[in-house]
Design brief:
four-stranded parallel β-sheet, globular, alpha/beta, Rossmann fold, single chain, two-stranded antiparallel sheet
């Protein structure tokens, strides 16, 4: 019987996938998990937890501006502070307070996170939009060390969606990811996470920025929230990431690709999913929610 990792590669993932504690992971990251739970942390570390394509770059830049107290872009790309991608030595060089981002599940995180009660902001996005955005990215992204002629995923949209919704993609199931982070306070004795919805950020970013700032105990003048929202608009952040920010931690893309910043819209999934695909996706999501006793809205 094939593993979830083997199913993913058979569908078109052009990287070596392996199973780590029941979750599909890229083999290139597998060694990081051997020491992940014992990773050293600092009391003032701030974590941004997301499933891929949930607005990670956007929220990470916002958090940096909140901590800085001004609407100035961080020097590097957010990949510079990616918990499971960077080495302990690299992250040790980051100045406090560190704003680290991760796609890990709560049970995969360093144990000190729960002991030190570090601040965690969790950004959730419509799962169908995540699926579409993920497909568009990996169909054009070139995995580090891979052939520049080969994208990370070489299959069709149908191939991708089939394995994506079954958790056969790197970082596992989006359903499990959302449910486990929603359930953190029950599992880790009242641990408080600031949960933010991508769609709410699109509708009123300044209000959500203020809510994140208050959670971090970093209150700012009201006008600063609007300034940060403007600086982190899709158009401005895309320009900054391509023309202003240091490109050291950038990744390779096929020629003509829009890179990380594609559309930044909510609801684009309606242009991709067939009625049958949408219904099947909903059924699997609702089943996962019932299993975890958590109600998670799809839209």
């Amino acid at each position: 019987m094939s593993t979830l990792a083997e199913r993913g590669m058979a569908a078109g993932w052009n990287i070596q996938l392996v199973m780590v504690d029941g979750v599909v992971e890229a083999e290139d990251f597998a060694d990081k998990f051997e020491t992940m739970k014992s990773r050293p942390l600092r009391e003032d570390d701030i974590f941004l937890a997301t499933y891929p394509k949930s607005g990670t770059h956007w929220a990470w830049e916002i958090l940096n501006m909140i901590v800085a107290g001004k609407a100035e872009y961080a020097k590097h790309w957010q990949n510079s502070a990616w918990l499971e991608y960077r080495t302990e030595e690299e992250l040790e060089e980051v100045t406090s307070p560190r704003i680290l981002h991760t796609h890990l599940l709560p049970r995969q995180m360093p144990e000190l996170l729960w002991q030190l009660e570090c601040k965690v902001v969790y950004v959730e996005r419509n799962a169908k939009d995540c699926a579409v955005s993920s497909f568009c990215q990996v169909s054009q992204q070139v995995w580090e060390g891979g052939s520049p002629q080969q994208s990370t995923f070489t299959g069709s949209w149908d191939d991708f969606l089939s394995v994506y919704q079954d958790g056969c993609a790197p970082l596992g199931s989006i359903f499990d990811h959302v449910n486990e982070w929603k359930n953190v306070s029950d599992v880790y004795d009242g641990f408080e996470v600031c949960s933010v919805k991508y769609e709410d950020m699109k509708q009123d970013c300044a209000t959500e920025i203020k809510r994140m700032a208050e959670y971090l105990d970093r209150h700012l003048p009201e006008e600063k929230y609007q300034e940060i929202a403007e600086a982190c608009s899709f158009k401005n952040l895309k320009h900054a990431s391509e023309k202003i920010k240091d490109q050291t931690f950038h990744v390779a893309w096929q020629e003509g690709s829009s890179g990380y910043f594609r559309k930044g819209q909510a609801g684009d999934w309606k242009n991709w999913f067939t009625v049958a695909q949408s219904e099947e996706f909903d059924q699997k999501y609702e089943l996962k929610c019932r299993e975890s006793a958590i109600k998670v809205p799809l839209c």
